């Protein structure tokens, strides 16, 4: 059996994938970069206007030249303001749109992944990928990519201006630049690791504080306050130690950057003094060079920080990259077979199955189910009952063998045709946090209100729905928390009624209900089963007495099959299961007196 396979991730592949989501907005992105460059060019204009002011306007007392410089500075500031505002607005729009596209594509791919993906990964992990990791990608769109491009182009232009002003002064700052380039990134990486560890330690400490507050009763009852405080103290020491290291590295990094910047500045002052004395440079040129140098070093250090932070973001986004590039274990056929009219006949031909890295569950299931036949699958836990239903709905494909619907292998059918013909009622019904009406309509989005009410009546749900505060427009709460288990199951049955599938799969649909609710749901199921091929995994054998056939699984194979009465007469495995269920029911009834209070048996 094939399994979902993940790609080998590297930062460059992740970066190309993230940036590819900007392709539909490349025009706007070009405007963003141009606006950034124009704003930066306006910033570089100021030193040269100051040079002119010092070298010409002031010595010549040129008032007109002074007003011209003042006007040019004002115009430059206005251009910078307009370009910065335009850039910020467009950056917000483009980053939000690209992040939305990325999240949507990730969600679409998530739908293609096999059922194993959801069984092997917690929901919280997937939600984190679709939310927090998308936010990290949005930072790449909004901040890192455009700013890094702008900074690289800006630094090239600034370096050219420095060389143009004075090649000799430009060369003297190279040792400072090389020293910072050698030590700076190392300190930045150390600072980033400490930032991440500090956040993790803080999260652990906050979690422990929450446990201390929420479990205060238990700690006091067991006299474990000191034990709990000592655990808090240990975590607090970790947070303190990491925070102090983070503060030290942060200040040291800033101090080193400032020190090298000042060393470069002092070197420029010393050499600049002699260049002015020798007549190789004017005072204005020297001031302009010094200002451009300050801008250059500030932007250079910022660029290095941006690279480090972007790599941190890419580490997080790489998890999303892995998700989107995970190869689904199940693929639809390129040219699926078409079933004009689905009858519902099913055939299992030596079906075998094993979950990844686990022993075989099904070891050779062969049987034919007629259209409209009701078949119950029974047996002890771990014998593959629910797995058989998953194979029918193509949550997985068999390791070996074949399952056919009306003579056509399931792998040759499209998912829409296959799953559109199958209705699945789980033990734990999932209801959306919406109205009762919309939860039933989920079975057929095109259904009218009249059809919804008819389905609810057939499912014995109409009466309790009308007694709710807002009837069919009552909000059921998250996962249907405002409804009882029996009510949720009847809504699930109404949902299947309105879907009107030819094949019905019941996965222990009543095992979690009390006897009263179970009887009501069973009455509703009788309406649903009429005329449909039904395969039910049964926990309580009494619920499948009237089924056409009962199949007993044991050790991954069919041990017995026949009607309820036939299997009881055989006195085989099914007889033992039924006898065990009866003993359990008798014990339970004996433990419940007339008053209804359960007595705990020793």
TrEMBL record:
Q: Its domain of life?
A: Bacteria
| Primary localization | membrane
Which SUPFAM superfamilies does this chain map to?
ABC transporter transmembrane region, P-loop containing nucleoside triphosphate hydrolases
State its Enzyme Commission number(s). 3.6.3.-
GO molecular-function term, one example from the UniProt record = ATP binding
Q: Where is the ABC transmembrane type-1 domain?
A: 30-312
Species per Swiss-Prot/TrEMBL record: Paenibacillus plantiphilus
Task: Keyword check for Cytoplasm, yes or no.
Answer: no
Question: What SMART domains does the record point to?
Answer: AAA (SM00382)
PROSITE patterns from the entry?
A: ABC_TM1F, ABC_TRANSPORTER_1, ABC_TRANSPORTER_2
Residues crossing the lipid bilayer are 30-54, 66-85, 144-164, 259-280, 286-304
Q: How does it sit in the membrane?
A: Multi-pass membrane protein
- Which UniProt key words apply to this protein? ATP-binding, Hydrolase, Membrane, Nucleotide-binding, Transmembrane, Transmembrane helix
Identify this protein by name.
Answer: Multidrug export ATP-binding/permease protein
Where the record annotates domain ABC transporter, the positions are: 346-580
Supply the InterPro entries for this chain: AAA+_ATPase, ABC1_TM_dom, ABC1_TM_sf, ABC_transporter-like_ATP-bd, ABC_transporter-like_CS, P-loop_NTPase, Type_1_exporter
Localization recorded for this chain is:
Cell membrane
Q: What class of enzyme is it?
A: hydrolase
Q: Mind telling me which CDD domains this protein's record contains?
A: ABC_6TM_exporters
């Amino acid at each position: 059996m094939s399994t979902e396979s993940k790609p080998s991730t590297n930062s460059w592949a992740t970066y190309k994938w993230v940036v590819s989501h900007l392709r539909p907005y490349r025009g706007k992105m070009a405007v963003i970069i141009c606006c950034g460059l124009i704003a930066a060019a306006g910033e570089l204009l100021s030193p040269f206007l100051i040079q002119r002011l010092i070298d010409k306007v002031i010595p010549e007392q040129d008032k007109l030249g002074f007003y011209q410089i003042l006007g040019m500075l004002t115009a430059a500031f206005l251009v910078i303001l307009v370009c910065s505002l335009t850039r910020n607005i467009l950056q917000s729009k483009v980053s939000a749109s690209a992040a939305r596209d990325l999240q949507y594509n990730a969600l679409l791919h998530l739908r293609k992944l096999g059922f194993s993906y959801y069984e092997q990964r917690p929901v919280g992990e997937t939600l984190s990928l679709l939310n927090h990791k998308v936010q990290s990608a949005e930072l790449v769109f909004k901040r890192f990519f455009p700013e890094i491009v702008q900074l690289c182009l800006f630094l090239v232009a600034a370096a050219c201006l420095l060389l143009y002003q004075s090649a000799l002064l430009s060369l003297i700052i190279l040792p400072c630049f090389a020293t910072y380039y050698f030590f700076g990134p190392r300190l930045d990486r150390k600072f980033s690791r400490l930032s991440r560890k500090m956040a993790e330690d803080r999260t652990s400490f906050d979690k422990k504080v929450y446990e201390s507050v929420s479990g205060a009763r238990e700690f006091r009852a067991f006299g474990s306050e000191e034990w709990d405080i000592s655990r808090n103290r240990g975590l607090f020491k970790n947070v303190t130690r990491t925070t102090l290291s983070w503060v030290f590295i942060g200040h040291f990094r800033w101090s080193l950057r400032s020190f090298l910047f000042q060393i470069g500045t002092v070197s420029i002052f010393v050499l600049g003094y002699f260049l002015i004395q020798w007549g190789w440079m004017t005072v204005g040129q020297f001031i302009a060079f010094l200002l451009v140098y300050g801008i250059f070093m500030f932007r250079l250090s910022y660029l290095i920080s941006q690279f480090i932070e972007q790599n941190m973001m890419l580490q997080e986004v790489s998890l999303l990259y892995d998700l989107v590039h995970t190869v689904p274990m199940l693929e639809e056929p390129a040219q699926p077979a078409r079933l004009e009219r689905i009858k519902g006949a099913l055939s299992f031909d030596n079906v075998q199955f094993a979950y990844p890295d686990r022993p075989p569950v099904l070891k050779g299931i062969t049987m034919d189910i007629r259209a409209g036949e009701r078949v119950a699958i029974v047996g002890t836990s771990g014998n593959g009952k629910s797995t058989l239903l998953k194979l029918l709905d193509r949550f997985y494909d068999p390791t070996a063998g074949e399952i056919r619907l009306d003579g056509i292998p399931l792998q040759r059918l499209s998912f829409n045709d296959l799953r559109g013909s199958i209705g699945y009622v789980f033990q734990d019904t999932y209801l959306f946090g919406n109205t009762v009406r919309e939860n039933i309509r989920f079975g057929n989005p095109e259904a009218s209100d009249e059809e919804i009410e008819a389905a609810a009546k057939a499912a014995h749900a109409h009466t309790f729905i009308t007694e709710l505060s807002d009837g069919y427009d009552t909000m059921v709460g998250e996962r249907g928390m405002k409804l009882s288990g029996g009510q949720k199951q009847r809504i699930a049955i109404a949902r299947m009624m309105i879907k009107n599938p030819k094949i019905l799969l019941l996965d222990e649909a009543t095992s979690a209900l009390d006897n009263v609710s179970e009887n009501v749901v069973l009455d509703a199921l009788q309406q649903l089963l009429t005329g449909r091929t039904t395969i039910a995994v049964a926990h309580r054998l009494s619920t499948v007495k009237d089924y056409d056939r009962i199949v007993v699984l044991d050790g991954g194979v069919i041990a017995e099959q026949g009607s309820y009465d036939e299997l009881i007469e055989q006195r085989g495995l099914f007889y033992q299961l039924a006898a065990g269920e009866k003993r359990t029911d008798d014990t339970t009834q004996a433990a419940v007196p007339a008053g209804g209070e359960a007595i705990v048996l020793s």
